[in-house]
Specification:
Helices cover about 35% and strands about 15% of the residues. With about 280 residues, it is α/β, with parallel strands linked by helices. It folds into two domains: about 100 residues, Nitrogenase molybdenum iron protein domain (Rossmann fold); about 140 residues, Nitrogenase molybdenum iron protein domain (Rossmann fold), CATH 3.40.50. InterPro entries: ABC_Transporter_SBP (IPR050902), ABC_transptr_periplasmic_BD (IPR002491), Vit_B12_bind_prot (IPR054828). It comes from Sandaracinus amylolyticus.
Length: about 280
């Protein structure tokens, strides 16, 4: 029997090796396949597209924000992997209310991602020490923490446009940037409500909503003086148009793989090393 505490503070019990796993999170899906193969994965979301070339054979049960709860329940899963941020609270609560064994994750640092990978392995009845990606991340994290730059590169990475949006220092992506030798120029900038307040046009109102993803106008980017701009291809697919829009003297603007910046699963070690190499060049 395996017992783990999830991000909601719930005690999740997996009484026997789970043979029917549903993943509602793209990075979790990739991790499950890396650890136990496709045989135990019975469903995924439409956005779970890795590992390409084999994941296509697994049935889909909606998107990350609109899971087909009835379809998941009909599969009688032993374990469902969800994320507090990526999946809708409505869907997660509906699955739990119907007695489905759901484990909810929410790693906001690379160290937390490592701990979650170890937890995922245990939930799948796999010894974490036998998962090479876990060992690789442990080594990469230790090396990065020991070599944090005294003068980090000032980095800006948007995640959306219309309105422009980015992440603050309380996110996995911001911690990854830090460990790779950068500093997120929006690390200290919380999201304000309503939108007019976020854009500096009105007074902010008290809120209990998530404030980790500020919206802004490009003029604010200039005041924060980034040296490097990283334009990911997800969740918004930035391209050459935005690259030209953000170019400025003394600033390097690059298109990058969004999975490297935001996916916290088995690709994290390689992502950290690739981002560190990019920022040091």
């Amino acid at each position: 029997m395996v017992i783990e505490i999830d991000a909601l503070g719930r005690e999740v019990v997996v009484a026997r090796e789970p043979r029917r796993v549903v993943s509602l999170v793209p990075s979790e899906t990739e991790s499950v396949v890396a650890m136990v193969g496709l045989e135990r994965l019975v469903a995924r979301t439409e956005y779970c597209e890795e590992p390409r070339g084999c994941i296509e054979s697994i049935a889909t049960i909606g998107g990350t924000k609109n899971v087909d709860v009835d379809a998941v329940c009909a599969l009688a899963p032993d374990l469902v992997l969800a994320n507090q941020e990526e999946n809708s609270q409505r869907d997660v609560e509906a699955l739990i209310a119907r007695g489905v064994n759901v484990f909810v994750s929410f790693p906001c640092t690379v160290a937390a991602a490592l701990a979650h990978l170890e937890t995922t392995a245990r939930l799948l009845y796999v010894e974490p020490s036998r998962v090479p990606e876990i060992d690789a991340l442990r080594v990469a994290l230790s090396r990065a923490e020991a070599n944090v730059r005294a003068r980090p590169v000032r980095v800006f990475a948007p995640i959306w446009k219309d309105p422009w949006m980015t992440f603050d220092g309380r996110t996995y992506a911001s911690d990854l940037v830090r460990l790779a030798g950068g500093v997120n120029v929006f690390a200290d900038r919380a999201r304000r409500y309503p939108l007019a307040a976020d854009l500096g046009r009105a007074e902010a109102k008290p809120t209990t909503r998530d404030t980790r993803y500020p919206r802004f106008e490009l003029a604010e980017v200039e005041t924060r003086a980034p040296e490097r701009v990283l334009l990911p291809d997800e969740p918004y697919r930035f391209g050459e148009t935005e690259k030209r829009e953000l170019e400025a003297p003394g600033r390097r603007v690059e298109l990058i793989c969004g999975k490297d910046l935001f996916w916290y699963g088995v690709r994290a070690a390689g992502a950290l090393e690739r981002l560190a190499a990019r920022l040091s060049s």
